[in-house]
UniProtKB/TrEMBL annotation:
It holds the Pfam family Sbt_1. The keyword Membrane applies. Keywords: Membrane, Transmembrane, Transmembrane helix. This is Sodium-dependent bicarbonate transport family permease. The chain crosses the membrane at residues 6-24, 62-83, 95-113, 125-143, 155-178, 190-209, 221-246, 252-271, 283-304.
Amino acid sequence: MSSVDPIIWFFMFGIFAGVVKSELRLPGPIYEFVSMLLLLTIGLKGGIELAQRPFFTLLPEISAVLAAGFALPLLAFPILMYLGRFSRVDSASIAAHYGSVSVGTFAVAVAYMHSQNIFYEEYMALFVVILEVPAILVGILLARGVTTGSVKWSAVMHEVLLGKGVMLLLGGLAIGWLSGPQGVETISPLFFGLFKGILALFLLEMGLITATQLGSLRRYGLFLVGFGIIMPLCFAVIGAALGAWLGLSVGGTSILATLFASASYIAVPAAMRVSVPEANPTLSLTASLGITFPFNILLGIPLYHALSTKLFAILGGS
């Protein structure tokens, strides 16, 4: 019997179906429903964990993660511009994608921790929300400069803060926090009992979408492939080091490393479309969705867990 989690097989099945040009597609309303359920469940889990601890005790961790969210795109930008020789706007746009996070990758990391019976701090969902925003702001400033008046900040902030993804995560967090563990028991069969099944359907669709990006790899060359793999590995090291420094568990450190290694393919593309419309979305989506997402799902998450475990062994933690 295969030791690979069945949700990974769903993702690979989606890629196969897309590559052979099957007619298989998840109906639009079903994909919409699956995405909403996934985001609400992640938010609820984080909110329940938050309800069990004073919020101010998390302020050091929130501040550190927020600061890292501003720093990551600044690290990626010069590599893209000077080594990759992309234009300024394309470099800024891709850097913003890699400074932000992927909720789908986070969900798979959570499922991995549960399947391996690894403890992690469930308030990590809060970090997903925190890491969505800074990279977008930095990406726009890198593309436009600090003195430009051409950016419609109100439209950008509306897209970022009131977009569906962040709203569902924040809504789930608030409901979980207000209700607490006992309060959500009556709805837990839908949100928690079906989590892996819902995630499997989500990954099936993501596999189909990923397959549509594979053709772009030939067009944009080896640099983008290398960047889409090496950059997440470098960011994972930073995330693991930060998690260990913050005193997170091995599981929490692994998830933070995964978040740093992931790249956005929902919130950032929408924000870049509003604020930097001349950036080529095919470049950033090919890298984030065609390279980094499958790499993280198939290989990255176990690697980041092994990295965190090794780091804790060196530091003498548990």
